[in-house]
């Protein structure tokens, strides 16, 4: 009796969170899948056909991937550099980390608006450039006619806003690596860069994996910052889902977009899990 | 040649003095143990020699080269860490060959040196494995092999046997001694374990409170401790210290008269447990037995002579009973004299 009870206990304790997950996560997911594959209550691929044939689809797909491929590597490199720098700080380390992570506390829409204030026609950037005599007056950087600078603006805002989450994960990961590994490498003649490449980086792999999965999945879901800075001049996947749901009142196509994002995110996660895997025998 | 000169090394962490003016010379090929309780500064001194910590003042000279300002990686040393620090993401082969690769050795030399070091430490069968698949003792061997593979002029070891269980520690100790003797490397070995220091070292530097209390051969440190701290820390059980007073440069003790190093006043008489011979009650020093611990090789008898706690190593099976009184006769040739105020040894007469 007692044994049966103790065997059931873990499942009983897991129960509430499982129910929670089912109601909040699984049920909507199943509903979204069903929505995306039905038209007027009949099973069909019509929503996907409409999504793919839409003028903005290719553009949104391209822009989203371009953003992820540019932003995420820069964020990883920046966060790696910053985390190694933070390690070296003695006093005031927590303060520096705290300041660097402030953008995490800013909502992405607010972050987008901040950068809009800087980059728009009569924004701070143009005022500064005008003051330096580099522009003649208000210059537009964020229109569909200036896709290069618009893209750059979005990239800047995304890097400012979301690098800190990578940084926090890497700083925590670095603290888990015993300093003796680096000291041993140093004693045996390794230069700082060699130590970073041959010791720190491989041992940091699990944290890098976590950070990349989190950041990439969120980067594929980029929306508010893009919307605030570029409006519809820079279509992205989530933005299209939003447009189909609200402007076009077509929940089916919006659901198809949502499913596409889910599939892309899952694929990215699978790739990271595979590529950055640490075999069991190589774990400390 | 790699003799080490530590010249007036001092280290402060903020207001705390970790090391006070350490002077120490280690001859080429010599094995010196830094022995002391935790917090005595022995590891800090080792890390300063390695360059992993910087000294507040003083110089480190190795093989005639002043290394004080030379970064760790260019000091050409090897080190074995307390927790081994064997890289988990590299095979045993790559671990052992790491130092050679950093020196830019070609593949043939790496292979030859790794093979030699692995042979010496009996880890050849594990060269393709990752450290996670090895036991603590095997990881320890990898760490030592990694250090010896570069044929370093100086080897630094920081409590390398600390994480091993007692039996393995004994085994590795004997093996280390043989291996290091063969390698002829100048070695500085940090430990808090006095049997380890006694068994391995050519000379022991006993450290306490950031100072070297005594540096000498193991038997000399054991038999003629320079301070009461050394007498108490080295040896198990610790040395007995009996307060006595002398007059006319002689000590009247237990019916015999011994020459004392001072004309008069109070002294501490230090004597090892095995140098107190149990005799019949009424003879020698009166000794009230409190506890008898049969340790196999001998019986450790603890009790009091007057107010002083004494430990005596009596022959095994001598049948002493707690609560009884016997006599103790100190071996007059094995006495050390200490100044009770300074705790320092006085030269014997």
UniProtKB/TrEMBL annotation, chain A:
<dbReference type="Pfam" id="PF00528">
    <property type="entry name" value="BPD_transp_1"/>
</dbReference>
<comment type="similarity">
    <text>Belongs to the binding-protein-dependent transport system permease family.</text>
</comment>
<keyword id="KW-1133">Transmembrane helix</keyword>
<feature type="transmembrane region" description="Helical">
    <location>
        <begin position="12"/>
        <end position="37"/>
    </location>
</feature>
<feature type="domain" description="ABC transmembrane type-1">
    <location>
        <begin position="61"/>
        <end position="272"/>
    </location>
</feature>
<feature type="transmembrane region" description="Helical">
    <location>
        <begin position="212"/>
        <end position="234"/>
    </location>
</feature>
<keyword id="KW-0813">Transport</keyword>
<feature type="transmembrane region" description="Helical">
    <location>
        <begin position="95"/>
        <end position="118"/>
    </location>
</feature>
<dbReference type="GO" id="GO:0005886">
    <property type="term" value="C:plasma membrane"/>
</dbReference>
<protein>
    <submittedName>
        <fullName>Carbohydrate ABC transporter membrane protein 1, CUT1 family</fullName>
    </submittedName>
</protein>
<dbReference type="InterPro" id="IPR000515">
    <property type="entry name" value="MetI-like"/>
</dbReference>
<feature type="transmembrane region" description="Helical">
    <location>
        <begin position="150"/>
        <end position="174"/>
    </location>
</feature>
<dbReference type="GO" id="GO:0055085">
    <property type="term" value="P:transmembrane transport"/>
</dbReference>
<keyword id="KW-0472">Membrane</keyword>
<keyword id="KW-0812">Transmembrane</keyword>
<keyword id="KW-1003">Cell membrane</keyword>
<feature type="transmembrane region" description="Helical">
    <location>
        <begin position="57"/>
        <end position="83"/>
    </location>
</feature>
<dbReference type="InterPro" id="IPR035906">
    <property type="entry name" value="MetI-like_sf"/>
</dbReference>
<dbReference type="InterPro" id="IPR051393">
    <property type="entry name" value="ABC_transporter_permease"/>
</dbReference>
<feature type="transmembrane region" description="Helical">
    <location>
        <begin position="254"/>
        <end position="273"/>
    </location>
</feature>
From TrEMBL, chain B:
<dbReference type="GO" id="GO:0055052">
    <property type="term" value="C:ATP-binding cassette (ABC) transporter complex, substrate-binding subunit-containing"/>
</dbReference>
<dbReference type="InterPro" id="IPR003439">
    <property type="entry name" value="ABC_transporter-like_ATP-bd"/>
</dbReference>
<dbReference type="InterPro" id="IPR008995">
    <property type="entry name" value="Mo/tungstate-bd_C_term_dom"/>
</dbReference>
<protein>
    <submittedName>
        <fullName>Carbohydrate ABC transporter ATP-binding protein, CUT1 family</fullName>
    </submittedName>
</protein>
<keyword id="KW-1003">Cell membrane</keyword>
<keyword id="KW-0813">Transport</keyword>
<dbReference type="InterPro" id="IPR017871">
    <property type="entry name" value="ABC_transporter-like_CS"/>
</dbReference>
<dbReference type="InterPro" id="IPR015853">
    <property type="entry name" value="ABC_transpr_FbpC"/>
</dbReference>
<dbReference type="InterPro" id="IPR003593">
    <property type="entry name" value="AAA+_ATPase"/>
</dbReference>
<dbReference type="InterPro" id="IPR012340">
    <property type="entry name" value="NA-bd_OB-fold"/>
</dbReference>
<keyword id="KW-0547">Nucleotide-binding</keyword>
<feature type="domain" description="ABC transporter">
    <location>
        <begin position="4"/>
        <end position="234"/>
    </location>
</feature>
<dbReference type="GO" id="GO:0016887">
    <property type="term" value="F:ATP hydrolysis activity"/>
</dbReference>
<dbReference type="InterPro" id="IPR027417">
    <property type="entry name" value="P-loop_NTPase"/>
</dbReference>
<keyword id="KW-0067">ATP-binding</keyword>
<dbReference type="InterPro" id="IPR047641">
    <property type="entry name" value="ABC_transpr_MalK/UgpC-like"/>
</dbReference>
<dbReference type="GO" id="GO:0015408">
    <property type="term" value="F:ABC-type ferric iron transporter activity"/>
</dbReference>
<dbReference type="GO" id="GO:0005524">
    <property type="term" value="F:ATP binding"/>
</dbReference>
<dbReference type="InterPro" id="IPR040582">
    <property type="entry name" value="OB_MalK-like"/>
</dbReference>
<comment type="similarity">
    <text>Belongs to the ABC transporter superfamily.</text>
</comment>
<dbReference type="Pfam" id="PF00005">
    <property type="entry name" value="ABC_tran"/>
</dbReference>
<dbReference type="Pfam" id="PF17912">
    <property type="entry name" value="OB_MalK"/>
</dbReference>
